[in-house]
Design a protein that fits this description.
Blueprint: E1 4-8, E2 20-27, H1 30-42, E3 47-50, E4 56-58, E5 63-70, E6 75-79, E7 84-90, H2 95-104, E8 107-108, H3 120-125, E9 129-130, E10 133-134, E11 139-146, E12 151-156, E13 177-188, H4 197-206, H5 213-227, E14 235-239, E15 245-247, H6 248-257, E16 264-265, E17 270-272, H7 275-282, E18 289-290, E19 293-296, E20 299-305, H8 311-329, E21 338-340
Parallel strand pairs: 2-5, 3-5, 4-21
Antiparallel strand pairs: 1-2, 6-7, 7-13, 8-13, 9-10, 11-12, 11-13, 14-20, 15-17, 16-17, 18-19, 19-20
Helix pairs in contact: 4-5
The structure holds uridine-diphosphate-2(N-acetylglucosaminyl) butyric acid.
């Protein structure tokens, strides 16, 4: 494995902005990964793990440490008794190809997470979620390299401390671990989740009464294509902010001013409200454009680099949105996208 110098990161992220990595290594197995980590340690440099770059924004000045591009691959599927199955995938596997493989074998669980850009490792670190499913619901174990002891540790689902777009691996203590492999628990011909509004409407319109798993995957892909920009053509990282969790009291007060405000229960006293609604219906940002940056025409929560934007322009644009939401609702939006600097 070769450690490269001054590698431009822009094209390795879906936002397509930002500077270069001082050092860069593509790792294809655990021994490569150990070499890369030792290199960073010897040089006393910070390191950053890059998957598909679908949820990151690289600073215009670049990253002064080592960027480790996770390319550990391999998929293994084991069908067990009672229709249960395990699917084990390397952290560098492309997420949607992995989901497609599970659907092809009629192993249910991940179909609602179809067409999300990213890698298997990032799916666990960020606990990706969409259309009523979070990946944590199907993760059995996560294996990760402890960069202090240089040993691989196996974490149970509980030890991963998953939360909404959160996991132990995002915490201060969890940062020393690099996810290498994830084991998912799936079920042959298992139950399907079709109760998310967009999915229900999709099947109603198509007059499909008992959708199959394949139907669900196709529906999710079509819904996402309609609502969200395709990262192969458009510079974006999907939802830019997280949906804020607020007290029921706060949501009730907001609902008086905005009667159509949707909300979802999140714990006993709190609710999650869509940041997209606040940015669109409350602040009028849907389709808003300034210079090379804007929000997507069908989803105000999605920021887009319309070509030639810098990371600073995107962050400044996001700051304007954040301030307006705060001014109008008192809510502090938190970024979902991670800035590498
Ligand atoms: N809405 C608006 N205007 C907008 C956008 C949304 O009024 O411009 C309203 C919608 O009408 C709907 C509600 O907000 O009532 C929720 O919108 P949507 O179903 O599009 O979902 P979201 O909450 O904006 C979340 C995830 C997405 C995921 C979708 C579908 C977060 C931050 N985002 O978006 O995940 O695909 O649900 O489950 O939780 C991502 O994380 O990058 C991502 C795309």
């Amino acid at each position: 494995m070769k450690i490269q110098e001054n590698v431009s990161l822009g094209e390795l992220t879906t936002f397509r902005t930002g500077g270069a990595a001082r050092y860069f290594a593509s790792v294809k197995n655990i021994s490569d990964l150990k070499i890369a980590v030792r290199f960073a340690k010897e040089k006393k440099l910070p390191f950053f793990i890059l998957g598909r770059g679908a949820n990151v924004l690289v600073s215009d000045a670049g990253f002064c440490g080592l960027v480790i591009k996770m390319e550990i691959r391999g998929i293994e599927v084991k069908e067990l008794l009672n229709k249960k199955a395990r699917a084990i995938a390397g952290a560098g596997e492309e997420w949607d190809s992995f989901v497609a493989k599970t659907v092809k074998r009629k192993l249910c669980g991940l179909e609602n997470l179809s067409f999300i850009p990213g890698t298997v490792g990032a799916s666990a670190v960020g606990n990706i979620g969409a259309y009523g499913t979070e990946v944590k619901d199907h993760i059995l174990f996560v294996e990760a390299l402890d960069t202090e002891t240089m040993k691989v540790k196996k974490f149970s689902n509980k030890e991963c401390s998953f939360g909404y777009r959160e996991s132990f691996f995002k915490t201060k203590e969890g940062k020393k671990y690099i996810v290498t492999r994830v084991t998912f628990s799936l079920k042959k011909n298992g139950a399907l989740k079709t109760d998310y509004k967009d999915v229900l409407e999709f099947f109603e319109n198509k007059k499909i009464i008992s959708p199959t798993q394949k139907n669900v995957r196709e529906a999710i892909i079509e819904i996402r294509k309609k609502k969200l920009p395709d990262v192969s053509f458009v510079g974006t990282a999907g939802s830019f902010f997280k949906n804020p969790v607020v007290s029921k009291r706060k949501a009730g007060a907001l609902k008086e001013t905005y009667p159509n405000l949707p909300f979802f229960l999140s714990g006993e006293k709190s609710v999650k409200i869509p940041a997209g609604f606040l940015l669109d219906k409350v602040c009028g940002f849907k389709g808003y454009k300034k210079g090379n940056v804007g929000t997507w025409e069908n989803q105000a929560l999605v920021l887009v680099n319309y070509g030639g934007a810098t990371t600073k322009e995107i962050l400044d644009f996001a700051d304007v949105m954040k301030k307006k939401v705060k001014e109008k609702t008192g809510i502090d939006l938190e970024m979902e996208v991670k800035v590498i600097k």
